[in-house]
Amino acid sequence: MDANAAAGAPAARSWIGQSIPRVEDKALLSGRGRFIDDLGVRPGTLHAAILRSPHAHANIVSTDVDAAKLARGVIAVLTGQDIKALTASLVVGVKAPVECWPIAVGRVRYAGEPVAVVVAESRYLAEDAIDLIEVEYEALPPVIDPIRAMDADSALLHDGFPNNIASDRSFKYGEPDQIFAEAERIIGISIRYPRNSCTPIETYGVVAEYDPGEQAFDVLANFQGPFSIHAVLSRALKVPGNRLRLRTPPDSGGSFGVKQGVFPYIALIAAAARATGRPVKWIEDRLEHLTASVSATNRATTLRAAVTDDGRILALDWDQVEDCGAHLRAPEPATLYRMHGNLTGAYDIAHVAVRNRVVVTNKTPTGLNRGFGGPQVYFALERLVHRIAVELKRDPVDVISCNLVPAGAFPYRTATGALLDSGDYPTAVARAVSEGGLAELKARREKVRAEGGIYGIGYTAVVEPSVSNMGYITTVMTPAERRKAGPKSGAQATATVSIDPVGSVSVQVASIPQGQGHRTVLAQVVADVLGLTPTDIRVNAEIDTAKDAWSIASGNYASRFAPAVAGTTKIAAERLAGKLARVAAAGLNTESDDIVFAGGFVLSKRNPDNKAPFSRIAALSHWSPGALADDVGQTIRETAFWTPPELSPPDDHDHINSSLCYGFIFDFCGIEVDRVTLQPRIDRYVTMHDCGTILHPAMVDGQVRGGFAQAVGAALYEEYAYAPDGSFLAGTFADYLLPTVAEVPEPLILHMQSASPFTPLGSKGVGEGNCMSTPVCIANAVADALGIADVELPLVPARLAEVLRGAEAAAPSSRSATRPGERKLTGEGSAMVAATPQQVWSMLLDPTTLSAVIPGCNAVKKISDTDFMADVTVRVGPVKSNYRARVTLIDLDHPSGVTLIGTADGALGFGAGKGRITLAPVAGEGTSVHYRYEAEIGGKIASIGGRLLDGAARVIIGQFFTALARQTARSATGGDRSIWTKLRGWLGGRR
C-alpha cells in the first residue's frame, strides 16, 4: 500500500507510464498546426529563389545577372562573391585548409549547389528572374565513387584534402593482431551501404531579418538546433552569438534529422536580408529538398572477424570509408564517429582494430538522418554475424546468443569505450523468440519451401545509443590535437518550470518537437511531481535563443528527449516543488518533509485535512514575496541544467563513451520472395525493445512504427542515385520510391524495461532503433531465402534478378549502350508531311520556320548556313525553364537527310545529343520524315524522373513534326505571308 494512503493522505496518481491522449493531435488533425509557412511575416518581406548548379563539378567561368536584376519585382541578385563578402566560411568538420560556403564560390561541387540567389517581391517573380541568369561553366571530371575518389588520378575537390581524403585515422583496442594471427577461423564481408534520406512532409524554411542599428540577425527557421550550430552560424554571419537570435515555429512537419541541414541556408538567407535591408523568406520546394538537402552518408565497409569453431567472435577488424559528399560541413564526420564507442554492438568482444577514412565526392553534403550512423554500422556487423552462422552451419540465434554481453555484466565497458548502462540481452532474446512465435515462423518457412516458394528468416541484435556525448566527434582528432584544442565532452539539457500569479504552471524546454509528443509527455512528468493533472500544465517547446535557457548541446537529436529533456524537466519541477513544500509547511504549521502534492492540493501527510489549494501556495511568490522565508527564495521559476558525469572526453587511447544510454533491440522477420517478380514481401516482423522506463507506451510504439516504416523504405525502395557524371537521378517520388501503408506491415512490438541508472527517469531513447536494425534484418532474411552471400540495398527486384539470373541481355539496337546509371533518352519515329522533300528541307534550314514549329521556342538565330542558336522554354513535369541551345547540321545529304548535333543549358540543367532526320518522297502524299535521336542530360532535369523525361521527349518531338506538317501545309496553300506577318509582329512585341 502507498505510504501516503496508509497515513490517510490521498494517493498521488502516476501519469508517467500512461497512454493519455496527445495534446498536440487536436490542432494537427484539424488543420490548425502552425508551421513556418503558415506564420505571418512583416510587411515588406521579400522572397528568395535559388539558382542551382546543373553540374556536379565545374568551374564557374562567368555569371551574367544583368537581365535578372532588371526583371520585374527583383530587388537583388547575389552570387558567390557577394555572399562571400558578407559572410565567413562555415566550419569544416576537421582541421584542414578548406573553405566551405553556403553558395558556390568559383567552383560548383555537386549538382544542386546554390550558384545565385534572387530576392524579389514574390517567389514567383524571383523564380522568373532565375531563368534570366546566364552562367558559363567549365566542366571538370566528377568524383562519384568514394573508393575511386582516393585514387591518385581522380579529380581533386579541395586542395586541402589530398586524394579527396579529409581524415584517415586508425585505432587498436586490446590485441587484435595477435587474436587474428591465432584465430581458428577468419570470416569477413565487404558491403556498401547506399545513400538514402528522410523526406519530411514539410521542407526547409527560413525567414531572416537584419537590424543594421543593432548589427544583429533575427532568424525564424524550422531548424532542430540550436546546439553547436548556433556558434557556427554566428561566426559565419560575422556577429557575436548574442547578435544572432534563432527562433523556431510552434510546429514542425517532421525532420528525422534532416532539418539540421537547413543551417547553410540560414546563413545564405540571412546574408540576403543584410544585403537588401529587408526581411527575406525562403521555403524549399520538394525538388530542391531531394536534390540538395542533406542525406545520410554512403559507406564502404570491409569487416573481418576472428571466430572460434563454435561461433564466438574474439576480434573485429573494421575498415570504413565514409562518403560525406562535396563539403565536410559540421557536424560531420559525426555520422562515422557517433557509433565508435559501440562498434561491437550488443556483443562481448574484447579486441578491435579500426581504420576510418572520410572522403569527399561530388554529391550532396551529408548530415543528420534518423539512425545517424547506426544503419551503416549494423548492416556490416549483423551481415557478418549472419555469414558466420551460415559458414559454421549454426542457427543464427545461437551465434547471436553466445556472443551477447552477459546479463550480469552491466554497466558494461566495451572495447572501444562505450559504457552500456543496463539491460538483460539474453532474456530479451529468449522472450522475443517465445512471444514472437519464432518456432511457428520456422515451420512456415519449411512449408513454403516445400511448396516451391522462396522464404527466409533474418535476425539482428543491436544496441541503440541515445544522448550523444559531444566529445565523440573529437575522436577524429589525435590525442595530441585534442590536448591542443581543449577537452570537449558531455551532454547538457535545460528545462524551465514557471508559475504565474494565479498559480498556473508552464514548462519551457530547449528541444524542438518533430512528432515526439513533447507537450504531452512533459505535462505528465510535471503533473506527477506537483500533484496536478496534465491538463493543468502548459508546455512551450518553441525555441528563442534570445530569451530561453539553452546550451550548446540543446536541440532535438540523438534520441535525447525522453532520457535528457524529460528527465531535466523532472529535476526542475522537483526543485520548484521543494521550495513550495517549505512555503506550504510554514502556512500549514508543519514540516516540509510532511508536505505532499496530490489532487491539486498541497497537504500534510499526517493530517490530510490540513491542506491548501496548490494555486494559492504556488502564487504566493507573486502576491506576497515578503512573506516567504529567507531560505526559500522565489518560487516563480526554476531552470535546471543537467549534465551526466558518465560522458567524458576521449582518453589518450581513444576510448570514448559515445552516448549516455543504450537500449537493446532484437528483431527477426520472415520474408517471402515472389518467384516470378522477385519482389520481397514481409510476412511477419517481430521487434523486441528495451528502452528503459517507458513514459508513454502508445507514443513509444508510435516511434517504433515510424522508425520501422522508414527502415522498410531503406531496405526495399529508397536510394539516392547518381549518374556517372554526378547528375542526381532521384529528384521526384517517381524515382525516389517511398513505402506507403500498403507496403508497411504491422510489426509485433514487444517490450522489456531495464531502467537506466544514468538518467533521471530511467528512460532511454527509442526513436531511431529500427532504422538501425530493420534494414539488415530484412537483408539477412532475403539472403537466407535466396541462399546468397551478398545482398545490396535497396533490395529491388531488378537487383535481385541480376544476382540470381545474371545481367539482363541488352536488347538488339544500333544505338550505343547506356552506361549503368546514366540518364540517356533515345527514340525514333515517323511523320507524314504534305510537301516535297525539297520544301521540307528548306523549312528545316529556315530560322523563321523553326521558331514557329519548335515547341516552346522563343527565337532562333542563324549563325551560319549550318549553325543555329535557339532560346526555348521547356516544361517537364513539375518544372520549367529557359534553355539556350546551339544546333549544328552535319552529314547533309540534300534533300534526303541531315544529322543534327547540339548542346543546351539552362536553369533546369544541361544536355547534349544528336539526331538523324531522313526525308523520303511518298507518291501522292508528300514526304515521309523519319527521325532517330539520342541525348544525354544532366543537372536538375535529370532529377525529375525517367518516366517523365521519356514521355516529355516523345511529346516534344511529336509536337515538332506535327507543327512542321501544319506549317508546310499552310505554306503550300499560300497562307504563309499573313501568318508570318502576324508571327513576326508577335515575336517582335514579345522581345
UniProtKB/TrEMBL annotation:
CDD domains in UniProt: CoxG
Q: Which UniProt keywords are listed?
A: Molybdenum, Oxidoreductase
Domain called Aldehyde oxidase/xanthine dehydrogenase a/b hammerhead: residue spans: 30-141
Organism taxonomic ancestry:
Bacteria, Pseudomonadati, Pseudomonadota, Alphaproteobacteria, Hyphomicrobiales
Which PANTHER family does the protein's record reference?
A: ALDEHYDE OXIDASE 1-RELATED, XANTHINE DEHYDROGENASE
Q: Does the keyword Transport apply?
A: no
Query: Where do the record's region annotations for Disordered lie?
Result: 811-830
Q: Does the keyword Oxidoreductase apply?
A: yes
Name-wise, this protein is Molybdopterin-dependent oxidoreductase
Q: Which Pfam family, just one, is annotated for this protein?
A: MoCoBD_1
Determine the domain of life of the protein's source: Bacteria
